[in-house]
Amino acid sequence: MLKNILHKVGNTPMVSVEIDTKENLKIFAKLEYYNPTGSIKDRAASYILNHLLQKKIISHSTTIVESSSGNFGVALSAYAKLYGLKFICIIDKTTLPINEELMKLYGTEVICIDKPDPYGGYLLNRIAKVKEIVENTEDVYWVNQYGNKLNALAYFNTIGEEICSEVPDKKVDYLFVGVSSGGTITGISNKVKQRNPDAQVIAVDVEGSIIFDGKPRKRFIPGIGSSMKPSILSYAKIDDVVTVDEEETISACKDLFQKHNLLVGGSSGSVIAGIDKYFDKYPVKEEVNIVCVFADTGSKYLSTLFNNEWCMMVREKTKKRELLSTLK
To answer: How far apart are CA 121 and CA 61, in angstroms?
Structure first.
């Protein structure tokens, strides 16, 4: 019997997903929205804070600070409250209202950045605010999901282990993971390569992200892509990268719901779109086991990804941007 639902982290379901036009792809997805606050970020939040307290790197008087556009902020809020820690989260004006309200319900101090950075997003200015707080606050710890090795270790020791144990025949031929802050793919790729040295690790990114030297532009779908290169990726074991656009992501999210009853967020749709796109380019002649990660639930995105008016807005702005680029 659990004393608190927040202790029920991990051991999420793995389900089979099909792409109609790709017979040889045996796709297995980890459904991370079965974690307590609805995303894979529970794994890192619980692991990091517990580790820091056990090793006495922080105490209950320490102020925790982090930048997050959503899921990690919610997860850290929940586990900071569980462990009796003060938490300051730096969000921005694109953060979904439901995520901001959840953070506040957990008692988190929320600071919202409304000035865009040179790339049209808010990440760089959120990070600048974190650094300002760190410089002016005593007994403070910046989680820094973009560079903290504990972030990768959380996934290495949890979901990485689960994937290698649960996949049929314990054989991973391909691993597809969406990339944003970088900790997830870094941790899982190292565990998968440890157990399956020949496995191919494919990072999934979106157009407008600069993680893998793409051309920066405003992105609308949270949870995948970034306007900075996470330093933690220097430890990742990545064999290739596939980039999808936001139209492909939206379409894939809707297909996953209609065909598989899976209501997932944008990063999950990007991953499935990435698998489809990758094997269009590199078809296989025999069956392969493909593992992917569905990082969060789509229930938070009913007003965006699953809203026809919002999708039309994204489509129109994308077409306008493409038209302007051809005229330059």
So the answer is: 33
